[in-house]
């Protein structure tokens, strides 16, 4: 297993710790929410570190291509679910995120079956980064409804845009 993949696994391992701290915070600002924010920031940074290491040291692997986006999805969806439970992140917005993730994953599976690899697009990277930053802001201000509205708007807009872009750029995979 490559160093890049090990770093990705660390990101996955951080998820229960983030959720435990968020549960302990009960949705309010305080030491537990700040702890969850700190762990989330470290986990988010590993997303950039593992990609950098994989490219720089030629550690790109099929396992890494599978695990890295899965780790990203698990990380952000876990936090969104917690905020959804506290009525901070609306369920409809979470459903949009989940629908996009399932749709893009399905598209990639169809493409792989046809011998085509769909690389992560720029808009997907922007979506991931803006979602991670937005969730950090939401953890810093968990009870501010204006902050929540802005974060939800950014997450939904970048999610929908990147999902549409994936399908527009790769529609041929569906019809060949």
List the helices and strands and how they pair.
Elements: H1 3-25, H2 31-56, H3 62-85, H4 91-113, H5 122-140, H6 145-170, H7 172-175
Extended strand count: 0
Strand and helix order: HHHHHHH
Distance between the termini: 35 Å
Task: Determine the mean pLDDT.
Answer: 93
Could you list the spans in which at least 5 consecutive residues all have pLDDT below 50?
none
Structural class: mainly alpha
Helix content: over 70%
Radius of gyration (CA) equals: 17 Å
Question: What would you note in describing this structure?
Answer:
By secondary structure, the protein is mostly helical. It is built from 7 helices and no strands. 82% of the residues lie in helices and 0% in strands. Helix 1 (3-25) packs antiparallel against helix 2, helix 1 (3-25) packs parallel to helix 3 (62-85) and helix 5 runs antiparallel to helix 6. It is globular. The model has no long low-confidence stretch (mean pLDDT 93).
Brief overview:
It contains seven helices and no strands.
Features:
mainly alpha, 176 residues
